[in-house]
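Aim 2, interim progress: modelling of the adenosine monophosphate-bound target.
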Amino acid sequence: MTTLNNEITFASLNLAEPIMRAIIDAGYTQPTPVQAQAIPLVLAGGDLLAGAQTGTGKTAGFTLPVLHLLNAKPAANPRAGAPRCLILTPTRELAAQVEESVQTYGKYLSLKSLVMFGGVNINPQIKALRGQVDILVATPGRLLDHLSQKTLDLSSVEILILDEADRMLDMGFIRDIRKILALLPKKRQNLLFSATFSEEIKTLSDGLLTNPGFVEVARRNTTSELVTQSVHMVAQKLKSHLLSHLIKHNDWKQVLVFTRTKHGANRLAEKLNADGIPAAAIHGNKSQSARTKALAQFKDGTMPVLVATDIAARGLDIDMLPHVVNFELPNVPEDYVHRIGRTGRAGSSGAAISLVDSEEMQHLRDIERLIKTQIPRVNIDSFVPPAHIPAEAPRPPRPQHGQKRHSNTTAASRTPREGQAASRTPREGQAPRNSDATKPRQPRDPQARDQRSQQPSGQPRTGQPPARPRPAQPAEKLLSEAARHQAMPQPALFSPRPAARRGK
Ligand code: AMP
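Predicted structure of the complex, ligand included:
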């Protein structure tokens, strides 16, 4: 963590001594900007709207003051399975990370925390809810499972935190969130953290927050921690070959690769493994244990390549990641910024490499418009495409260009994407239906589901124009700086035929 606020110290924040001890154990010397601004506001008991994303230290920004508040004022009426603080997150990984932070910072306190998400057996969670739970970190789907089984009591919640609220809305959790909000006590403190501020976030915060304090911080890698961006123009069917070449030729040790689909992630991981490069895929259809294992191996350096979809990778905090590869460009320009924000952290240099097929040019132009810079096109002269390439499997259709799911769209109007499949794929952060719930659950909106399954993917419904991409301020701040350091060569497209390319 290098972007620190020089004036405010942890000591000046007046956190309880056991929390200070845990902060020292964690090795933190100074609060990050979001911590310096958010902690006093939360300690004062008010609502908060915070613009900060993973990597800024936001988790401690809400966890530290929440621990302090709960510790300072013991529960009026302690009951089993009735948390005093509820933290909602969009993904399982983020939920696990947040709860780990709660444990880290609360290790000298007697407060108890619990994490719950889908894709794992519900019974241990039910058992844990029979005891004391002060802080509950949960994904919305599994939380609703518990509520329907009456294994969880939300009537004691004093503090609600929506973490990565923009991503929760993107993932279509708005109805689940509203159901959960309706079950909370009216009098409570609300904290909303979001990386971007869309109209939907404003609507949500207007309904949720009362006279909120406002905090907004730039990303961690704004100025000195530069991300070097480049685009390699390459035909889709050559991308996996080029990626293997880049990893081997440059001896890359830790690469996070983004694909657009879960299937694509699997296929690419298989291909890399076949090329002798250990790789694992991580996405919403993988079991939780497979995801946890892949992430642990990637973090400890035993698995050099992790292939992920956007939602699976969201919220992962992997320090010092040297390389991020966009195997395909995202449909939503803001996702590009989220993706490349995984590298160039903590003062280390990072590279974000995009493999772009000519069909993706419009997506590239949209990204460049958002970040207000042209990403250099770089030719890889050392790459010689293989002479024989097997026929390419047909590509799944992309959603309408620039289209992003919005919280106020109906299920029927959404395009299928990670965590939001049009079929029976379980939603990210949510258990596969009936997989581990003790009672079968009805589809939430059978009519919408039927309509959705008839809707050709990638087509907006009649009368529903595709959403326009919206500019995200942190993106501009992050990338304009990097752009100044880069030249702008012309695009070049790798030919599938080596002879033709060499003949030029
Ligand atoms: P977050 O944005 O909450 O995901 O945090 C990103 C990383 O920053 C985590 O690995 C934290 O351990 C680390 N971190 C949080 N606060 C500080 C701090 N004040 N000083 C140094 N590192 C920190």
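The chain has two domains: 10-216, 227-386. The first helix runs from residue 17 to 26.
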